[in-house]
Amino acid sequence: MHCRRLPLATSWTLQRAAVAILLIASTTAAHVARAGEPSPSSARPILSSPVTHSDWMGKEETPDWGPKGVHQILDRAKQCGWRKVYWRCLDGGRALYPSKVLQPLAGVDEDNYHRGKPTEIYVQRLSRFDWASFDAFREAVDYGHSIGLEVHAWLSINEDDHGWGWTSRYTREHPESRWVCRDGRVLRSQQSFAFPEVRAYKLAVVKEVLDYRPDGIFFDWIRTGDVRDNPHTDADGVAIHGYERPNIDRFRELYGVDPHQVPNGDPRWVAVRAEPQTCFMRDARRLIREKIPACEVTALVQHRFSYRGMPTDTPYDGSLRGLLVDVKAWADEGLIDAVVAAGYYRPGGDPTTAYREMQSLTSGKVKVLLFGWLTPNGFAESVPLAEKLGAPEILLWESDYVGLPPQNGPFVEAMQKFTAAH
Q: Which of 177, 257, 308, 337 is most solvent-facing, going by the fewest CB within 10 Å?
């Protein structure tokens, strides 16, 4: 079963999406290049940052474990002048809260990315903590709201491992629904949304997190599992995965040919492989609206100069062709409220090209956030660029880079002054 939303009788939707892929590939660069400078917003951009509690707890100088430590992190966020935090709920395939759907993080697999490396100390530090024993996300939402912070749930929805060694219970139990590449290679952990059971599993995570009443859901689509499985794209930046049986059967049903007999970048085949992710987003948006109507939905996606790993490992020709994520369709259907492009750039790309690409794809239907790095130089570069582009928000990656007081005092003061002048 592919996506129940698109029976054969409505295959025109997929055909139209295939045409859209061709148009995007041929016109995005020209459109972005021709686009005039947007009128600067009358309001200065707000500041926000993602929070990975496990990264904070793996540092040499950590916050306290328990409620006090969550307060220390969020007090630091408030001190920095951030309006929002995106609190990470999943680390690879493990939960950073007492989940019933996922295995909470409490140590990692014996075989993991850091073993035998200088960074192994990070795993040793993490082994002291058990996220089943302390509901850090509940504390973050409650305390964050009490001090005037928006707390959004950050879900790395597109991976079931990270680096490697953080595998989910689901992917260990269901190897049959993992990503399959054009050459038949089955990836180690990635679960395919082409399977209804995978979409249901991922939706159960969303439902569980919504019970915490966050201010938003931040769907992170760029994290894609075990780094040993690189590359995920061909030399043209087109995804080489998505060759799972439901997608193959759907393509044969629509076009009477096996997708292995057409080019990997055939727009019809890209559209078929992208549809399951859109099906999931439709279901997720419906669930979110039912439970928390005002909950903001943001998507973190790739752009046409982005990459995974190293610049030559997995180049992306945009989110649709490279990641099988149809940002344009999501904006057109009202499935997202905001979008942000990842801050990784191959030659030819930079924050401006990535931002304008998102503007072009979404046609003013959603907010476009500016991705910035949480360093003094990154902040100094992001502020004037955000004001020039009219960006409503600067997402500063990532919160633990600033550390706890008294670290980075002048930098924190600079962010305070910016916010005070807002």
A: 257
